[in-house]
Structure of Kinesin-like protein:
Amino acid sequence: MCFGFDFVVISIGQMEFGYYGGGGVHDSRMYSSSSNNRNNSTHNTSLSGGTNLFSLPLTPPGRRKNLGGGGGGGGDDSGDFSPGLLDLHSFDTELISEVSMDSFHGASLYNSARGRSFDDADPYYANTKQSNRIRGLPENNLSKSFAPDKEKASSVAKIKVVVRKRPLNKRELAKNEEDIVTTSSHCNSLTVHETKLKVDLTEYVEKHEFVFDAVLNEEVSNDEVYHETVEPIVPIIFQRTKATCFAYGQTGSGKTFTMKPLPLKASRDILRLMHQTYRGQGFQLFFSFFEIYGGKLYDLLNDRKKLLMREDGKQQVCIVGLQEYRVSDVETIKELIDRGNSTRSTGTTGANEESSRSHAILQLCIKRSVDGSESKPARVVGKLSFIDLAGSERGADTTDNDKQTRMEGAEINKSLLALKECIRALDNDQGHIPFRGSKLTEVLRDSFVGNSRTVMVSCISPNAGSCEHTLNTLRYADRVKSLSKGNKKDAINLRESTTVPLSSAIPPVLPYEDGTIDSWPNQPDEDDYDTTEEFFEPEPPSWKNNGRFETQSFSNGQDKMRRTNGQTKPKEPSKSASRSYNPDGDLNALLQEEEDLVKAHRKQVEDTMDIVRVEMNLLVEADEPGNLVDDYVTKLNTILAQKAAAILQLQNRLAHFQKRLRDHNVLISSSGP
Ligand SMILES: Nc1ncnc2c1ncn2[C@@H]1O[C@H](COP(=O)(O)OP(=O)(O)OP(=O)(O)O)[C@@H](O)[C@H]1O
């Protein structure tokens, strides 16, 4: 058996600020509206949806490093850890057996002290009582989550959306900016007070109220963030569940500050479990760290070796060539995190001197050899990934930058827009989720479908100047939250694996002259009709989802007949039957072939539309696309040409099978009753 986590954190851009202590006050409205305040209106966006639901924060990214701001949290903000993680990865749980929790009961897995940094604590046996609990968290989420093991595991929400508000920073205070975000932690709600102008230029305040799974104000420490987000996930990873956590928000909103400590905290808990609860059971912890830069993957722990992303037969994402390091102590993990971070792609933009230009994905993978020994290759039990998103930026923020920087920004925005499209599609219950819109969404796919857990940490800035970005972030978070309502996600998962009936696309079966279609001939002679080699020609290359042509071959007619998406199960023919003509089965197979073709055809169109939509959104949202327009048009044309070729090929195939179907009916007619 193995343990595993999949954990992801997404962060977008960052800026360096210094904070004057705590800042916000619980449930107090710090915003002072201007004189004309009578037209206040409340918009509960979480209910009504609001407008511009998918606008991403487009503020230029700030600095990713230099996180020493200290500030109100009082948590372990000083770590040199990765900013964030998001778990999205494939992981094979086939051989994983249930983990016995017996030995865990009563064990003190983790007791953190508010305001105490991780490094201060005994890495494995910290026994300090967790203080505070502003958020009303249990004293020890990890151990409590383990107690009734599976029951607890099933109680962990599939998608959890947490909002964290940071305090006003020095710059904002110096400019006398107002805090326009009030929070109510016990109600898990917050309100954004937006100042607007009427046509007569008088001011009024519009309130936007949101409710999330948790709302963390500026006084909440990083320890508490961990308890609220990742800690509850740790136990269920041992129960063969994937989990993802990602941070989202505008530049400088605190994503890195929030995400940085999480991987190490999670590592500590994982190792504690392995060293205590599961000691001697053959579990191994592996560490990997890679980035997506310019749409390509690079190993941050292996000289930036280029990696390939592939999907296996179960549509699980595999990173081919990714170097994994076996680790057994927190210090080693910290070193690897530092090493990976130092290798990340950073650059200077007009808005950020040290801006992250990539999405970084850090993974903690738990494996175990099948027999519990280390003699055999270990199998993956679970994985925890943390994804730190690069900062988004507007075209207007990049005018001073060179072409490479602009293209980097465009690529980053493209992937974030693709992510937005996926969330929109999931939210709209669309049958088709455009995960292939970008490498990022391909990687993130598993965090939204299947048996996974996702935690999104939405970071917001409280100052009036960030109002638009804050609303965008909250609306985005609200969309993600809606995915977890009721059984919606289950429905999505079901839909993902359900094929849409295409009966209308299948040509009708031609009736006999007398109008009947059900009186098939008995069995034509084999010489008259070869059910294998002749009737079923080798299939021409078909366009696969990954954009490549792939040839499928079938060894015999029986296999061909089985190729029915697992839906139709032709009867196993007897020896004599296999030598005989089975018109029902053959026709079914033919129709299935046609249906598959039509599906593939439609998929091509959908893929093309995904790409076009993302590209067009990018152009629309870019304030000053400049040379990017030409680049994208060229790129788009190339893609369209490829798609056109693929579709042509599919059409040819379709025509081929239609002809076969006609021949088939002619044959049936000629050998009629
Ligand atoms: N809750 C908080 N309490 C105190 N300081 C904070 C808090 N959140 C953020 N900060 C400080 O604000 C500054 C910006 O935060 P951070 O770098 O994490 O933002 P970011 O969202 O990651 O930005 P970017 O998108 O540019 O990477 C840092 O100096 C950080 O220390």
